[in-house]
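re the bet — no i am not wrong, look at it urself. input seq straight from the record:
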Amino acid sequence: MRPAPHELVHRVEAALGVSVEDAAPLSGGQVGEAWLCRLGDGREAVVKTSAGTPLDVEAFMLRYLGEHTALSVPAVLRAEPDLLVLAYVEGTSVVSDAAERDAGRHLATLHQRSAERFGFERDTLIGPFVLDNTWTASWPEFYARRRLLPMAAIAAERGALPPEDHRRVERLAASLPERFDAAPIPSLIHGDVWGGNVLAQGERIAAFLDPALYFADAEVELAFIDLFHTFGSAFYEAYEALRPIDAGYQTWRRDLYQVFPLLVHVALFGGGYLGGLRERLRRLNV
């Protein structure tokens, strides 16, 4: 087991005013390293480091959720641009049907929190990428200009998105004002609900991790969950009991809203996600 660097241990001790008795590396991070630390006062903390991704933005998002919503998130103990210390939350990524129903109720309640426009009070993050959250009245304009076009450009600049696929995304973005068939209300979404960002304890969700907050069409959250098979039918039963899902989601908007996270994953991980992206674009007739 790789020990935590002495410099990191000293930073955590100075930040919290308590000794670090032990530290073990954690897996699964996309933007840096993470450690589980046992503190001298008996607490456990997760320490994240990153040289290039501003971890204080993640801290802001967790604090926002903790202060303004009922969503369960880890408490922030310390936040700096390259260091984030969170209270450890015990849990598993194996989610029971009962916990799925709890997640459905939690996210349906979160989505009831609204705003006058789409966006957020500041830019946020998904993985290492900045999300431009400039307030925008039109949802098709927001999704095209703040999500599809910037992420396609990033993926293309990284050499992960071939030119023809880039042009197809641009055509899709240009077509949205004409083809859109709904007028969604801005809803606060977590934005990154995949299995690694959900901790369950028995019949409940203990914590949602690593948010990518903004006010969006709530179906964006559902499309992400569907794409990565985070939850199944029990989730949707509980969710729809509070927020019915419009038929247009199944017929075409799920494909539309999966284009953005697929672009994120093409940019991060390369061609393994191109097939899924191309299939959505094909079904969207671009």
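see?? The chain is about 45% helix and 20% strand. told u. also Residues 57 and 144 are 24 Å apart (CA to CA). so pay up
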